[in-house]
Every structure is written in C-alpha cells, then in structure tokens.
Write a structure and sequence with these properties.
175 residues; alpha+beta; Dna Ligase, domain 1; 5-stranded antiparallel beta sheet; 23% strand
C-alpha cells in the first residue's frame, strides 16, 4: 500500500487526484520490478481522525480490473474513477492511498472472454519510462496527471530521523 499523509489538509479533488496518480506510479514501479501485475485496486481516503472537532470521512473502495495490469495509466484510470465516487466535498482530507492486490506474474495474466486484451503499446511505453527514470532519477519522465506544479500535498519531513544505516553522509562520527 502506498499512502503517505499529506503535509496539510486538502479539500481540492484535483490535488488529491494528482497525489493518487503519483502514489500509483510508485506502487506500479514496485510491482513491475518484481514482474507482477495486479487484479484488484483499492483506493483509500481519510480525514484527520485526531481532529475530532472537524467533520470526519473515511472511505475505501475496491475494483476488480478486467485483466491483471501493472500499467500506470490503466490503474490510474480505474483508481481515479473510484476516488471520484468516494470523495465528498467539504471535508479536509489528510491521506489518500492505493493498494494493489490480487498479484499474479505479469507473464501469466488471464483475460476475460468479452473484454479487450491489454494494449501491448502501453507495456512498451511503461518499459521505456522505467528505463529512463532508472537512469536519470525518479520522476524524470512522468504522466501528466501526476502534476507539474509544486506538490502542496507532500508529507512534512521536518521531524524525519536521519538515515544512519543507509546513507553514508548521515553516519555519526565519534571523536
């Protein structure tokens, strides 16, 4: 599940959709690295349950994909439609997340009888985007629905601890 909290409360659906698309990009990158595809997509949205004086709304919904997929654009299409169903105006949301489940090997994806097969071109585009991002850094190439403006929804990192075990420059020096 990819569901970091927003840096501040968000009431605007378009900003939440942007955050959801970015979370889906992270989640699909992870399952593609493991050569998997998802059959189910769950979208979760929460207000801040610690602020009891504010109206509360917590919702989630799951959709069964017509065929297993690890494509950012396909999963974003379904997840965004779920978000538009569970989103309610007038609430200050603190978190949106996506859970990809029903994982199967991406080479063994079974299609349904009356559903069009997955577009092979999407798989090629996704592979090219992954290679570029691997070489030049995360989000060098991204889909437009992930947004290009300053991310007002990013998590706060002011109280984040250092990475003593994973980053050389953060290792403590004894003198």
């Amino acid at each position: 599940m990819v569901a970091p909290s927003f840096g501040r409360a968000i009431m605007d659906l378009s900003i939440i959709e942007e955050a959801l698309a970015t979370h889906i990009a992270r989640a699909t990158e992870k399952i593609r690295r493991q050569s998997l595809a998802a059959n189910l997509v769950t979208v979760v949205i929460h207000t801040n349950h610690f602020r009891t004086q504010e109206p509360q709304h917590h919702a989630s919904q799951t959709v069964n994909l017509p065929y297993a997929s690890n494509s950012v654009s396909e999963i974003t299409h379904y997840a965004t439609s779920i978000l538009r169903i569970i989103f309610k105006e007038g609430y200050s949301y603190r978190k949106v997340g996506v859970l990809l489940s029903g994982l199967t090997p991406d080479t063994q994806c079974q299609t349904q009888l009356l559903v069009a097969e997955p577009d092979v071109r999407l798989r090629k585009v996704t592979g090219i985007v992954d290679r570029i991002n691997l070489k030049h850094g995360q989000d060098t190439v991204r889909f437009a629905n992930q947004g290009f403006r300053i991310k007002v929804w990013h998590s706060k990192h002011e109280r984040k601890s250092k990475c003593y075990t994973t980053r050389v420059k953060d290792i403590l020096l004894a003198s």
